[in-house]
Task: inverse folding
C-alpha cells in the first residue's frame, strides 16, 4: 500500500499505521477513557440526512468563504496540532507547504516542532496560531508578540485542556515526547525502521516555540499528560482570555467552547470566532459531539460570531452538513496527521485535495452553487 | 498482569477473573436472565452527553457531598455487598479500611462475612448497615440492635429481593454459600490454588449476623437466589418498613426503589433517603436502569430525601452525569468488588483513588469546582 492507494480517511489511517511505531500511531488515533466521544464525533454526522435540490445548473461551484479574516478556497482547514515531526521528519514544514498550495488556513500549535518564524517564511497564506496559556505567563506574551511580528493572521486560544484527558492508549504504549524506547515499545520501533532512521538522522526533536522557555518535553521524556498537568495553568479564566484578545488585536478564536453561555461570553470579550470542539474526543469523554451541539450554538450566537466546527469530519458531506446547520467552516486534525505520516507534504496535499474534490462534487449533487445555499432546509435529523 | 496494570474498571475486572475460581467470579460478574438490565445500567450513561464550561479557574476542586447528615469526601461510596471474604480473605475488613482512607461511606451487608462489631472497631468513618427482612423476627431484631450498638449511621432496608432473581450463571457454575466443590467446578477451584489456600487457612467462613439464627449460607450450602426465596419474608409491606424505620430511629433508607409512587411513600414513612437501584441487574431483568429513572424520582422527591443513584458506574464521568441530574451521591458494588478480588485493601484503595481522579479531572474539564455546580443545564439527552 502506498499514497496512490489512499482515497479516503480510512486509507490514510491504514497507511499511517503501517509507517508509524505503534505508540505514535495510537497517540494520534486514540481518545480519552472509553472513546465514546471520539466515536460519536464522527457517527453524529450519520444521524443527519441531506436533502438535495436538482436542475439548478451547477456547472460553476464557488466553495470559497471568509473566516478568521481571510478568504479561503474551501470551507475546511487543518486544525493546529502538536509535534508534527513525530509523524514525519519534515514536520510542520511539510504540512505548512501543503496547506499553502491548496489554499486554506494553516494552524500552527504552541507545541509545534518548527518555529513560528520559520513557518512564516515557508507559508505565505493565512496562518492561525494556537495558543496554550502556560503557568509561565511570560511565555504567553512572547508567543503573541512573535506571531504578530511573523505575520500570522489569526490567533486561537485552547480552553479545553486545563487538565489532561485520560488517554489510556498512551498509558499502555508508554508514549512520551520525545519518543522513548521502552522494552514494550522496542519491537514496534524496530519494526518501523523507516520512521526510526528518519527520526534519528534528521535534526533533533524539539518544541521549537517554547524551547527557550522550558526544557519540558524536549530534553526530558514526558508524557503529554504530564506536560499538560505541569505546564498549563488550571487557574486560567475569562480575564486571561480577554487579555490575550486585547493584546492580539486581530481575528481571535476560542477553541473548545461547547456551551451557549460560554459562546456569549466569547463575544463579550471580543472574540471573532469560536471553535466548537471537544479536542477530538481526547479530553472529557462523554462530552457532546460538536455536530450535536452546533445548532444550539448557532441559534444563540451565529449572527454575531463565526462558528467553526472542529472534530469528527472525515468526508465532504460531513462538512456540508455542518455548514447546513450554520457552521462557517470546519477544521480537522486526525485526517491530515495520518496523511502527513503516510506521505509527508504530498500526503497532506492529497488528503486536502481529496476533501476539496468531495466538497465540490457534493455541492453539485446538492444542487448548490455557493456555500450560502447550504441551510437548514437542506438537512434533516433522522429519528432512530 | 498485576495491580500496577489496573488503570480502569475493566482492568480490575480482568485481574479479578484471573484470581477467582470461576463460580465466584461469575457470581460477582453475572446478573439475572439475559442480563439486559445489567448492561443497560452502564450503557444508559452513553445516551447523555456533557456540555462543559470553560475558563472558570479550576485549580481547586471540592468533591465532598453530604448524605444522611454525614459529610463524605467523595460523591460516591461502597454499596453494601454480600460475602466479601469469598472474594478476598480480608473481605469487609479490606473494603472498610479503604473506604475510611477516602472518608466515604462503607455499606455492610446483612450477608457480610465480618461482624458489625468488628467493623466498628476498625473504622470510625460513616457506616451503613444493609438489612434483609427475614421471616425470623428474632434475627431481624438482632440485626437492628447490633448495628445500633455498633454505632452504624444509616440503616438501609433492601426492598427489591422479595424473591431471588434468576441468576443463570450461578445455576451453570453451581455457585453456593459457602462454596461447594462439584465435579464441574472442581477444575476451576484447582486452577486457582491461592484462593483455595487462603479460603482454608485465613479464618473460618462465617455470616456473623445470621448464623445464630439460620444455618443456610454457613453450615448448609445455598445459592443466593434460593436464600432470598426461602429465608426472606415475602409478606413484607409498607407497614413493616414503617415499623422498622421507627424502630431504628435514625437515618433510614429504602434500597431498590424505582417508582415515583414508592419514592413518595418512602418519604411518608419517614425515610431520609432512597437508593434508586435494580440490584445491579441481578433481580428483575428488563427493569429500568437507575440512571434512566433518576430524573423522574429526583423531580418528585429530590427536595425531601437523599436520592442515591446505585449501579452501572464504571467511570468518573458516569457519576458526573448522575450528580448533574440531581443524585446526592452514587454507589456501586462491582465498582470496588473486582478490585477487592484483585488485591484486597490495596486493590480497593487503588480503585477508589482511580475514580476520585476521574471525577476530579472530569469536574475540571466541566469547569466545575463543587459538586453543587453540576446541573441538568450541562447535559443533553441524545434524540431517539
Result:
Amino acid at each position: 500500500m502506498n499514497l496512490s492507494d489512499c482515497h479516503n480517511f480510512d486509507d490514510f489511517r491504514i497507511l499511517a499505521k503501517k509507517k508509524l511505531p505503534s505508540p505514535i500511531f495510537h497517540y494520534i488515533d486514540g481518545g480519552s477513557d472509553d472513546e465514546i466521544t471520539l466515536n460519536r464525533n464522527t457517527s453524529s454526522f450519520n444521524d443527519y440526512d441531506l436533502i438535495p435540490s436538482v436542475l439548478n445548473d451547477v456547472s460553476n461551484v464557488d466553495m470559497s468563504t471568509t473566516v478568521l479574516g481571510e478568504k479561503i478556497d474551501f470551507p475546511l482547514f487543518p486544525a493546529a496540532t502538536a509535534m508534527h515531526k513525530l509523524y514525519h521528519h519534515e514536520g510542520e514544514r511539510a504540512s505548512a507547504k501543503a496547506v499553502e498550495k491548496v489554499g486554506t488556513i494553516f494552524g500552527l500549535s504552541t507545541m509545534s516542532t518548527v518555529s513560528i518564524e520559520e513557518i512564516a517564511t515557508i507559508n505565505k497564506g493565512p496562518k492561525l496560531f494556537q495558543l496554550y496559556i502556560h503557568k509561565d505567563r511570560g511565555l504567553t506574551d512572547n508567543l503573541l508578540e512573535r506571531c504578530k511580528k511573523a505575520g500570522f493572521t489569526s490567533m486561537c486560544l485552547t480552553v479545553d485542556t486545563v487538565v489532561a484527558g485520560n488517554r489510556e492508549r498512551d498509558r499502555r504504549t508508554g508514549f512520551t515526547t520525545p519518543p522513548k524506547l521502552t522494552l514494550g515499545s522496542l519491537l514496534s520501533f524496530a519494526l518501523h525502521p523507516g520512521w526510526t532512521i528518519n527520526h534519528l538522522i534528521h535534526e533533533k526533536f524539539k518544541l521549537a516555540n517554547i524551547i527557550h522557555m522550558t526544557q519540558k518535553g524536549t530534553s526530558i521524556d514526558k508524557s503529554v499528560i504530564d506536560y499538560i498537568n505541569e505546564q498549563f495553568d488550571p487557574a486560567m479564566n475569562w480575564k486571561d482570555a480577554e487579555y490575550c484578545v486585547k493584546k492580539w488585536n486581530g481575528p481571535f478564536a476560542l477553541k473548545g467552547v461547547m456551551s451557549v453561555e460560554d459562546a456569549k461570553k466569547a463575544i463579550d470579550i471580543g472574540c471573532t470566532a469560536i471553535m466548537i470542539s471537544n479536542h477530538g474526543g481526547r479530553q472529557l469523554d462523554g462530552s457532546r459531539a460538536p455536530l450535536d451541539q452546533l445548532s444550539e450554538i448557532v441559534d444563540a450566537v451565529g449572527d454575531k460570531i463565526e462558528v467553526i466546527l472542529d472534530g469528527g469530519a472525515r468526508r465532504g458531506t460531513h462538512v456540508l452538513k455542518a455548514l447546513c446547520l450554520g457552521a462557517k467552516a470546519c477544521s480537522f486534525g486526525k485526517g491530515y496527521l495520518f496523511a502527513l505520516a503516510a506521505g509527508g507534504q504530498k500526503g497532506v496535499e492529497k488528503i486536502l485535495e481529496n476533501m476539496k474534490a468531495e466538497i465540490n462534487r457534493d455541492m453539485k449533487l446538492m444542487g448548490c452553487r455557493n456555500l450560502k445555499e447550504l441551510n437548514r432546509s437542506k438537512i434533516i435529523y433522522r429519528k432512530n | 498482569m498485576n495491580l500496577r496494570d489496573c488503570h480502569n474498571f475493566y482492568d480490575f475486572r480482568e485481574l479479578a477473573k484471573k484470581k477467582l475460581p470461576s463460580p465466584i467470579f461469575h457470581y460477582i460478574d453475572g446478573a439475572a436472565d439475559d442480563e439486559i438490565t445489567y448492561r443497560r445500567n452502564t450503557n444508559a450513561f452513553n445516551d447523555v452527553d456533557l456540555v462543559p464550561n470553560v475558563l472558570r479557574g479550576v485549580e481547586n476542586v471540592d468533591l465532598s457531598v453530604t448524605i444522611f447528615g454525614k459529610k463524605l469526601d467523595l460523591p460516591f461510596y461502597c454499596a453494601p455487598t454480600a460475602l466479601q471474604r469469598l472474594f478476598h480473605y480480608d473481605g469487609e475488613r479490606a473494603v472498610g479500611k479503604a473506604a475510611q482512607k477516602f472518608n466515604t461511606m462503607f455499606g455492610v451487608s446483612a450477608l457480610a462475612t465480618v461482624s458489625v462489631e468488628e467493623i466498628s472497631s476498625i473504622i470510625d468513618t460513616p457506616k451503613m448497615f444493609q438489612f434483609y427482612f427475614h421471616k425470623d423476627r428474632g434475627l431481624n431484631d438482632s440485626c437492628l440492635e447490633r448495628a445500633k450498638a455498633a454505632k452504624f449511621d444509616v440503616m438501609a432496608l433492601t426492598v427489591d429481593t422479595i424473591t431471588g432473581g434468576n441468576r443463570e450463571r450461578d445455576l451453570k457454575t453451581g455457585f453456593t454459600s459457602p462454596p461447594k466443590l462439584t465435579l464441574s467446578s472442581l477444575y476451576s477451584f484447582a486452577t486457582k490454588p491461592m484462593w483455595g489456600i487462603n479460603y482454608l487457612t485465613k479464618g473460618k467462613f462465617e455470616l456473623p449476623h445470621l448464623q445464630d439464627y439460620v444455618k443456610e449460607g454457613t453450615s448448609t450450602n445455598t445459592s443466593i437466589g434460593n436464600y432470598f426465596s426461602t429465608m426472606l419474608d415475602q409478606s413484607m409491606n409498607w407497614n413493616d418498613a414503617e415499623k422498622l424505620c421507627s424502630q431504628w430511629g435514625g437515618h433510614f433508607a429504602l434500597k431498590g426503589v424505582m417508582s415515583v409512587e414508592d419514592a413518595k411513600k418512602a418519604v411518608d414513612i419517614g425515610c431520609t433517603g432512597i437508593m434508586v437501584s435494580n440490584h445491579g441487574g441481578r433481580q428483575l431483568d428488563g427493569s429500568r436502569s437507575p440512571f434512566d429513572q433518576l430524573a423522574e424520582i429526583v423531580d418528585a422527591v429530590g427536595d425531601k430525601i437523599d436520592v442515591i443513584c446505585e449501579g452501572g458506574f464504571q467511570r468518573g464521568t458516569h457519576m458526573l452525569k448522575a450528580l448533574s441530574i440531581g443524585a446526592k451521591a452514587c454507589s456501586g458494588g462491582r465498582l470496588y468488588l473486582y478490585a477487592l478480588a484483585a488485591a484486597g485493601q490495596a486493590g480497593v484503595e487503588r480503585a477508589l483513588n482511580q475514580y476520585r481522579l476521574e471525577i476530579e479531572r472530569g469536574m475540571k474539564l466541566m469547569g466545575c469546582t463543587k459538586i453543587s455546580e453540576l446541573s441538568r443545564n450541562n447535559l443533553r439527552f441524545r434524540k431517539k
User: Anything to note?
Assistant: The first strand of chain B starts at residue 48 and ends at 50. The interface with chain A takes residues 7-8, 45-46, 48-59, 315, 317-318, 320-321, 358, 361-362, 364-366, 378, 380, 382-384 of chain B (CB under 8 Å). Chain B has a mean pLDDT of 96. Chain B has one domain: 3-381.
